[in-house]
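ZP: hey, is the MTE complex queued? I don't see it on the tracker
AM: it wasn't, my bad. submitting now with these inputs:
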Amino acid sequence: MIGRRRFIAASASGLLLGGCDRLNNSPGFRDVLRSAEKLNMASQRLISPRDALAREYGEADLSPIFRSNGTRVPGTAEYTRHMAEQFANWRLTVDGLVARPLSIPIQTLRSLPHRTQITRHDCVEGWSAIGKWHGVPLSRILDHAGLSTRAKYIVFHCADRFGDKPYYESIDLVDAFHPQTILAWGMNGHLLPVPNGAPLRLRVERQLGYKHAKYVERIEAVDSLSRVAGGKGGYWEDNVDYEWYAGI
Ligand SMILES: Nc1nc2c(c(=O)[nH]1)N[C@H]1C(S)=C(S)[C@@H](COP(=O)(O)O)O[C@H]1N2
Ligand SMILES: [Mo]
């Protein structure tokens, strides 16, 4: 039991680290990756239910430094303006398959009842860190917007770009309504720092690091991922063939 999380994370990262090599460009190997993904999803369902809680830690376990990975500062003119305004005019758009599309000021999000959780973040690049997160349960926002019965996935659109491609991620409704899935506006007792996704980032604690979208400006409910960007549900999934389901 003790080694399970680590084992699954390690076996996932073993596959994922192969992301850019030549082997990965062969269609056969991609099929192997896909079947490994299905196996991971199926075996995890057997080992622990999808709605099981991720382990929570104590204050003494907090990493002295929680590093930043990927984008450290989104370089766009728009984000630079938001930074100068200390995010006073940042709003979260909620649209797609919802009864009531929303545009929620960041101040409102920060004033809603929130949840605090100390969890371990596991990046496929081979590092982990324990941090304390403060945020609004995503379920609350989705209930407020009135999710359509046709919705199957929630897409997180981010403010940063890799070249001309915006970062984005997506999760299914099991993860979206998981009690530890929050839109975090705070970290370690402070407002979220820019390198960690200010002013709003996703924490989806049963998944690997790249699913935890930073700089979230829009949430879209969809019935299929095929019409969003490259169609595979996330920036890395589209461009480096990372698995969409990155459960740990
Ligand atoms: N918008 C956005 N979200 C992102 C990334 C990114 O580059 N841009 N990197 C991802 C990866 S690979 C990891 S490990 C975590 C890192 O979060 P941190 O910077 O708070 O450590 O954010 C994820 N979310
Ligand atoms: Mo990562």
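AM: back. The chain has one domain: 4-240.
ZP: great, adding it to the tracker
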